[in-house]
Specification:
- The chain has 236 residues and is mainly α.
- It is built from nine helices and four strands; from the N terminus they run αααββαβαααβαα.
- β1 and β2 form a beta hairpin.
- The longest helix is centred in the N-terminal third of the chain and has 27 residues.
């Protein structure tokens, strides 16, 4: 097999490594760096598919490796960030000097794994998604520290996001959405016609305007806009 056939899988492994580094940063309390590495993982996640199509190097192992990498980068690594937040909530379920309460965050990782396993065997998801895509969940969570850093800790938004009730509700809602039958549009673009990509363009335009106005604080709202737009436009 030629070297070019290995390029997409190599990029996918960079996605996986980025997720692992994110976890390490969270463990050392470098939460912004941890979030940044999840965004880096997203870049690699986009590039591996692009490279596979451009090089005609799609393979069964590539699809499986992509899902395994996504579990780590957009399921496990974001769960560590949520656990980091929960560990600072003041709530403790202590067993042998170990606080079990933050471990509730890893429910998200379990549902992410189920979501990706379903995706691998579901032939209905070739163009759009059924269930919230795991990368969208991971990127939303990764965007929260940037927003909090931007707005400061003396705002109501900061208090709400850091609330354990908000965090647990977020885990529950995202876990359900990932394995639900709710349709979500993908960002796979086959042409540039506005009619065929209207929802995608709306998200991009909203993202540009929001970031210009709110800077990094806009990031979570961009992902929420994508979720709401999908639910509204694809409601059954």
């Amino acid at each position: 097999m030629s070297i070019r056939k290995h390029i997409p899988n190599t990029i996918t492994c960079c996605n996986l490594l980025s997720g692992c580094v994110s976890i390490l940063f969270t463990c050392h309390n470098h939460i912004l760096w941890a979030s940044a590495m999840i965004f880096v993982a997203a870049v690699f996640d986009f590039l591996d598919g692009f490279a596979a199509r451009a090089l005609d190097a799609k393979s069964p192992i590539g699809g499986e490796l992509d899902s395994l990498s996504d579990v780590v980068s957009f399921g496990v690594a974001p769960s560590f960030i949520v656990a980091w937040f929960l560990s600072r909530s003041g709530i403790g379920w202590w067993v042998h000097n170990v606080n079990l309460f933050p471990m509730l965050a890893f429910i998200l990782a379990a549902f992410a794994a189920v979501r990706l396993a379903k995706f691998n065997i579901d032939t209905r998801q070739s163009h759009n998604f059924i269930g919230l895509p795991v990368p969208a969940v991971g990127l939303f969570i990764a965007s929260l520290p940037f927003m909090l850093f931007r707005i400061g800790n003396d705002t109501m938004v900061y208090q709400v996001v850091m609330s354990p009730y908000f965090l647990l509700a977020m885990v529950a809602i995202f876990s359900w959405l990932m394995i639900s039958e709710v349709p979500f549009f993908s960002f796979k673009i086959k042409n540039l016609r506005f009619k065929d990509n209207m929802l995608r363009y709306f998200v991009v335009i909203f993202a540009i305007i929001a970031v210009i106005i709110m800077k990094l604080a806009a990031l979570p709202f961009v992902f929420l806009f994508y979720i709401l737009l999908s639910v509204i436009c694809y409601r059954r």
